[in-house]
Design brief:
This protein is of the alpha/beta class. The protein has 13 helices and twelve strands.
C-alpha cells in the first residue's frame, strides 16, 4: 500500500513499498498531513466547488458531487482495506446497492441470496422491476441450486454473507468459480475487511453499509462500493456523479474516524459475541443460537475458511426463545440498557426483532422460506462489558419466559 493519496502525490507512489498490517493501513491509507497546515487529521473540506486557474486547470476537484477530498480520503482507505481497484462512497448502503444495480439494462437478470437485508428485495421487487430488471432469489449457500438458477441474462449474483439476520454463509470462492459471465457482488457489511475480504476470495464487487461497523458509532448513514476492476469502478463513479447520491464531507470524516479503529473494534465485537453466544447456547429457554463462532453452527467450517484474520467471527448473532413470537416481543420490551433498534454494527448492543422490524417488507412467506421465523431475535453485540450484556439479556429472558 501507499500512505499517500493518489490524487495528492502520485509521483511518490512506490509499488515496492512493504505491505503494512491491517491496523496500520486502516489508520494511514489515503491519509496525509494537510499540505497547507500540517494537520494530522484530514480536514472536512466543506466546500461545494473549487477555484480553477484557467478553464479545466484545477487540482483534481471541480464540484463536490463529482469529488471531494475528504470523501476521496475515505474511498482510498476503504479501497486499500478491501484490496480493490477503486471505491465510491454513497449517502447510504441502499444508495450503494442501487448504484451497482444501475449498471444493469432492460432485460438483465440479478440472482440474489434468499436471505438478505430486507431493503434489497424491496428495491428489486418494487423499483428495478419497473425498469425491466428481473430478480430471482436463491439459496446461495447451495452452489448447485445457484448454478441452476443462472440464466443467459444473469449479470449479477448478489450475495450477503453472513446473511442478515440468519447468519447463513455462502461460499464466495465456490460462487466465483460458477458465476460464468455474471459479476459476483458481496455485501460485506456484517464482517468488514477486518475479518473477510471477498475480493481475495473471487468477488468482483464489495458493498458496505458504512452505517454499520465501518463507521461504527451509530452516527452516520453511508455506503460504499469497492470494485476489483478499474472499469467497474469507473462505471460506478459515473453513476455516483450522475445520480448524485453522494456521501457528505462531514459523514465521510466521521467514517474515516471510525475506520481507524476498525480492527480493534471488530476483535472486541467478536470476543463479546462469542461470550454472549455461549451463554445463550446453554440457556434452557433458548431453542437455537446462530453464531458462526460456535462449534454447533452448521457452517462453522466455511466460517473458518472465509475468515482471514485473528479477529473472530464478528458481532452479529441471532437466537430463538422458547415461546415464539410472544416471548420474543416480551423479551424486547424487558431490556434495560440494551437498545431495541433497527441498526447494527455499532458500539452499543442493539436488539432487533427482524420479522416486525428490518425484514417486515419481505412478507411472511418469503421470510419463513428463508428461515426468518417470527420468534427470531437478532443481536448486534456491542462493546460494553460482556458480563453486563449477559446480565441484561438474562433479566429480559427471565421476565419474558417467567423463569
Ligand atoms: C447487510 C446490509 N446491507 C445493506 C444495508 C442498507 O444500508 P443503509 O441502511 O446504510 O442504507 C443494511 C441495513 O441494515 C444491511 O444490514
Amino acid at each position: 500500500m501507499t500512505l499517500l493519496t493518489e490524487k495528492q502525490q502520485p509521483e511518490k507512489k512506490d509499488k515496492k513499498e512493504k505491505e503494512l498490517g491491517f491496523a496500520t493501513r486502516a489508520i494511514h491509507a489515503g491519509q496525509i498531513p494537510d499540505p497547507t497546515t500540517g494537520a494530522v487529521t484530514i480536514p472536512i473540506y466543506q466546500t461545494t466547488t473549487y477555484a480553477q486557474e484557467a478553464v479545466g486547470v484545477h487540482k483534481g476537484y471541480t464540484y463536490s458531487r463529482t469529488g471531494n477530498p475528504t470523501v476521496s480520503a475515505l474511498e482510498e482507505n476503504l479501497n486499500e482495506l478491501e484490496g480493490g481497484a477503486g471505491c465510491a462512497c454513497f449517502s447510504s448502503g441502499m444508495a450503494a446497492i442501487t448504484a451497482v444495480f444501475s449498471t444493469l439494462s432492460l432485460g438483465d437478470h440479478v440472482l440474489i441470496s434468499e436471505v438478505v437485508y430486507g431493503g434489497t428485495p424491496r428495491l428489486c421487487n418494487n423499483i428495478l422491476s419497473r425498469f425491466g430488471i428481473k430478480s430471482t432469489y436463491v439459496d446461495t449457500s447451495n452452489i448447485e441450486a445457484t448454478r441452476n438458477a443462472i440464466t443467459e441474462n444473469t449479470r449479477l449474483i448478489f450475495v450477503e454473507t453472513p446473511a442478515n439476520p440468519t447468519l447463513k454463509l455462502s461460499d464466495i470462492k465456490a460462487l466465483s468459480e460458477i458465476k460464468g459471465n455474471a459479476k459476483l457482488v458481496v455485501d460485506n457489511t456484517f464482517l468488514t475487511p477486518a475479518i473477510q475480504r471477498p475480493i481475495e476470495l473471487g468477488a468482483d464487487i464489495v458493498i458496505h453499509s458504512t452505517t454499520k461497523y465501518i463507521e461504527g458509532h451509530n452516527s452516520t448513514i453511508g455506503g460504499a462500493v469497492v470494485s476489483n476492476s478499474k472499469k467497474d469502478n469507473e462505471d460506478v463513479k459515473f453513476i455516483q456523479n450522475a445520480t448524485g447520491s453522494i456521501l457528505t464531507p462531514f459523514n465521510a470524516w466521521l467514517t474515516i474516524r471510525g475506520l481507524k479503529t476498525l480492527e480493534l473494534r471488530m476483535r472486541k465485537h467478536s470476543e463479546n459475541a462469542q461470550i454472549v453466544a455461549e451463554y445463550l447456547e446453554d440457556h434452557p429457554k433458548v431453542s437455537k443460537v446462530l453464531y458462526p463462532g460456535l462449534a454447533s453452527f452448521s457452517q462453522a467450517f466455511l466460517a473458518k475458511k472465509q475468515n482471514n484474520s485473528k479477529n473472530g467471527y464478528g458481532g452479529m448473532l441471532a437466537f430463538e426463545l422458547k415461546g415464539g413470537v410472544e416471548a420474543g416481543l416480551k423479551f424486547a420490551k424487558s431490556l434495560s440498557f440494551l437498545t431495541l433498534a433497527e441498526n447494527l454494527g455499532a458500539i452499543e448492543t442493539m436488539v432487533t426483532h427482524p420479522a416486525t422490524m428490518t425484514h417486515a417488507a419481505m412478507g411472511k412467506e418469503a421470510r419463513e422460506k428463508a428461515g426468518i421465523t417470527d420468534g427470531l431475535i437478532r443481536v448486534s453485540v456491542g462493546l460494553e462489558d460482556p458480563q453486563d450484556i449477559v446480565e441484561d439479556l438474562d433479566r429480559a429472558i427471565k421476565s419474558a419466559t417467567s423463569l
